[in-house]
Amino acid sequence: MQTGQPTVPLRFMKFHGLGNDFVVIDRRTGGAPVTAALARALGDRHRGVGFDQLAEIETDPEVNVSLRFWNADGSTAGACGNATRCIARHLMDEAGAGELTLRTERGVLLARDQGNGITSVNMGAPLTDWRDVPLASAMDTLHLPIDGDPVATGMGNPHCTFFVPDVAAVDLDAFGRAHENHPLFPQRTNVQVAQLIGTDHLRCRVWERGVGHTLASGSSSCAVAVAAARRGLTGRAVRVDLDGGTLHIDWRDDGVWMTGPSAHVFTAELTSAFLAQLT
Q: Which of 78, 181, 171 shows the shortest CA–CA distance to 160?
């Protein structure tokens, strides 16, 4: 048994934002922290629950809550925009609040209720210096020396955005897998293929590091919007259509705001027997 692994039934929630799905464990009342072994077991869609990311909610003395994110392969993630929005929506409904603050590795993020189940989260300022993305060496993040001329952006996690004529024509599984571990990205990278539809409209498909092809991604949508604006392809407020639905991204002076819906699917418990098998 791995030290600290819980062996009593463990309560969790399942959410999704545009089909980008999450397991959320609320540790504000205690309990052992999530381990890589638990994240991998839970992330298995056949033998566990299945998720794109797992999030832990923890108490924080300075803000409403702190969040920690895990990928399905057991690695950690510094940011997860859709999960942050889902959790913010849940907590605002729980407290009857119109806004709240959440701490992540990205920093303290502000979330606001926009009504009708729509939530906005300020994902912070984009990181466009090669050191901050991070990249392996000094270079222009607006034009990476990779076939396809992608853009690198940091949103608390690294992103590599390719602008293509037709996103549907890209074999995303092969393309994403080939670029996730590119040597220019020492922490691996999320990969997006994006198509310009109009001056305020993008179509995007996403490959997430440690996960694979996902139906949507909040931080990836922010990165794509920033990359398009920096290239002069769009303005700073855009609609981003993903495989799972639409997000609205607005790159303002105070950060990149992401707005969209979320869904609380169910609440359940992991059995003691499931937890006991983890090593």
A: 181
